Amino acid sequence: MGAYWVDIAAVAFFVVEWLIYGFTLEHTAYGRDSLSARMNRFREVWVRNMLDREARMVDMQIMASLQNGTAFFASTSLLAVGAGLALLRATNDALTVLSKFPIDITPSPALWETKCVGLILIFVYAFFKFAWAYRLFNYVAILFGAMPQTANRDAPEAEAHVIRTARLFEAAGRHFNRGQRAFFFALGYLGWFISPWVLFVTTGAVVVVTWRRQFASTAWRAMGS
Prior knowledge:
single chain, mainly alpha, 8 helices
């Protein structure tokens, strides 16, 4: 156990950073000024504007593109899971290749397999998030089709439908964002295959990069103008 304390600490740091970042982004006042939160406000604007137009073909086309993008990431997650399983089965071959490096970074077979299982679990999580987001986007498309006509835009039922659709739309986007976040953190997790010390660095780098995109990017500034 003593030989693996750095690995345990690095993985714990990775998990804690992921959880704290996600919680801060989705459940704090600070997170309500993120790029994702700003986009959520425009989701409601979009749904509300649909009441002003009779022809909604363009809205459905945009929704179809969102569904296709989500389906692409879900498929990619399954491919990544398959690649992780292949890596797990090729433990001996992988360790042989690593042993030829000028720097000794060869882990024990058990540790290598643990790393592979962790990577697989991350992509399994991402698949479930993307698959659920795809399902929610389907539900939103149905609510788009059930949108009240323009003549009834001032009815209480129309307002209730707009709120219902916007909230479901936000939920779909939130699960999609969680899936993408898993992809980003999976890139940081790859640092563990080199060294637990590298995992500390790559995890921190992922947090910094994703934070900048949410709170200091050109897109964030544009959506605040």
